[in-house]
């Protein structure tokens, strides 16, 4: 597995999209399939359907709504899976066989459906029982064979089929479970050697979930909900105004929303959290400890949670120094009996693009007493 550090899921998505673009080459099925998913910035290439093989014509038909006759399908379904022990292209191409199923399902033709089932029975079981297919492909085989989809090995395939209008997910609880598993699968598999079309399905699911699912419930937030919300801030920062050469409107000057100080970051968090937590307090002064006058950046009384904001402007502020400051601050905050049970969240805005240090920094901060969460994000200009 390739070792790459991505501070947020959107950067990982961009990496995944590049893998898809590099992996589809000029294969007509791959090109049509990725274009069918409407992924952004996919190269537009004309495909001459008339020059495709019979199998290619049938497999792309439902993807680009091209017309093929029933006789074409009948001819394909009558062909043997092997000629002189040489397997035909569709024998190991479960995605192509799946798209043909979609096309057949559009017809109210029982004879055609029976011919399709007879056709796949000659090769699909043999392939699914072999070691050649990974978990994603095995799940697609289950769908093609109309088997029980409650025992899928992946979350991507049932989600992908669900978002494409296939009725395979029974209720909202099952959907929520699959979505929670999906993001773990996405992080793990995008960096592996899984095929570009499977990665394209992951990106499709990723985008669909972000469009349709709330990041956190609107009421009764927990610390986990708060952590999830803060960790998703980089998703919104993708639209942060950062114009390099020219403005977006005619004759306008390029604009950059600069974040130059720690209090700027604190203000952003206040703007984001205040509509949700109407009891939010900023710059809360705590009782003196000797000559020290501790002051918490943000406090959410309803969650009994303090948010400590840090800003790394340049390399002069080293990560060891930041950890030391956080350790001192957390000790001072928890020394007051009123806040001794408060939960502490550290939020670091890194303006140095030192993403290779973020994991170690976060692991170190989470070892400090009282720290329940540590969020590290990069400035939008670096994302």
Question: Could you give the count of β-strands?
Answer: 7
Helix content: 40-55%
Shape: elongated
- Major β-sheet, in short? 5 strands, mixed
Radius of gyration in whole Å, from Cα? 27 Å
Distance between the termini: 23 Å
Describe the structure.
With 383 residues, the chain is α/β, with parallel strands linked by helices. Helix content is 46%, strand content 10%. The protein has helices spanning 9-24, 28-36, 54-61, 70-77, 94-106, 110-121, 124-128, 135-144, 156-163, 172-189, 196-212, 223-231, 233-237, 262-273, 319-334, 355-365, and strands spanning 82-83, 86-87, 281-285, 295-300, 305-312, 343-350, 371-378. The strands form 2 sheets. Strands 3-4-5-6-7 form a 5-stranded mixed beta sheet, sandwiched between helices. Strands 1-2 form a two-stranded antiparallel ribbon. β5 (305-312), α15 and β6 form a beta-alpha-beta unit.
Quick recap:
Helices cover 46% and strands 10% of the residues. With 383 residues, it is α/β, with parallel strands linked by helices.
Could you list some keywords that capture this structure?
two-stranded antiparallel sheet, 383 residues, 7 strands, 10% strand, alpha/beta, 5-stranded mixed beta sheet, elongated
């Amino acid at each position: 597995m390739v070792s790459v550090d991505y501070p947020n899921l959107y950067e990982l998505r961009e990496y995944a999209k590049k893998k898809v673009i590099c992996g589809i080459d000029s294969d007509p099925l791959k090109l049509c399939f990725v274009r069918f998913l409407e992924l952004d910035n996919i190269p537009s290439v004309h495909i001459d359907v008339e020059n495709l093989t019979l199998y290619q014509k049938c497999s792309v038909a439902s993807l680009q709504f091209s017309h093929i006759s029933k006789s074409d399908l009948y001819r394909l379904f009558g062909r043997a899976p092997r000629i002189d022990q040489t397997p035909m292209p569709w024998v190991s191409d479960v995605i192509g066989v799946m798209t043909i199923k979609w096309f057949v399902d559009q017809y109210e033709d029982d004879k055609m459906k029976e011919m399709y089932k007879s056709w796949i029975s000659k090769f699909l079981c043999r392939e699914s029982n072999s070691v050649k297919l990974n978990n994603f492909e095995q799940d697609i085989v289950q769908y093609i064979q109309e088997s029980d989809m409650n025992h899928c090995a992946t979350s991507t395939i049932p989600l992908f089929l669900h978002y494409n209008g296939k009725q395979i997910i029974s209720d909202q609880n099952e959907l929520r479970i699959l979505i929670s598993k999906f993001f773990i699968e996405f992080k793990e598999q995008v960096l592996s050697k899984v095929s570009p079309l499977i990665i394209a399905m992951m990106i499709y699911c990723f985008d669909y979930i972000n469009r349709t699912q709330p990041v956190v419930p609107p009421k009764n937030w927990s610390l986990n909900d708060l952590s999830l919300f803060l960790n998703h801030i980089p998703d919104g920062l993708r639209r942060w105004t950062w114009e390099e050469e020219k403005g977006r409107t005619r004759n306008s000057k390029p604009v950059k929303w600069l974040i130059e100080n720690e209090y700027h970051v604190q203000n952003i968090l206040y703007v984001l959290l205040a509509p949700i937590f109407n009891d939010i307090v900023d710059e809360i002064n705590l009782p003196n400890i000797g000559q020290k006058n501790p002051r918490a950046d943000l406090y959410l009384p309803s969650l009994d949670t303090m948010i400590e904001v840090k800003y790394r402007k340049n390399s002069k502020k080293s990560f060891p120094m930041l950890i030391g400051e956080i350790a001192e601050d957390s000790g001072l905050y928890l020394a007051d009996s009123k806040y001794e049970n408060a939960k502490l969240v550290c939020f670091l805005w890194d303006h140095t693009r030192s993403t290779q240090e973020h994991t170690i920094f976060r692991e170190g901060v989470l070892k400090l007493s009282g720290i329940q969460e540590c969020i590290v994000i990069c400035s939008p200009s670096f994302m």
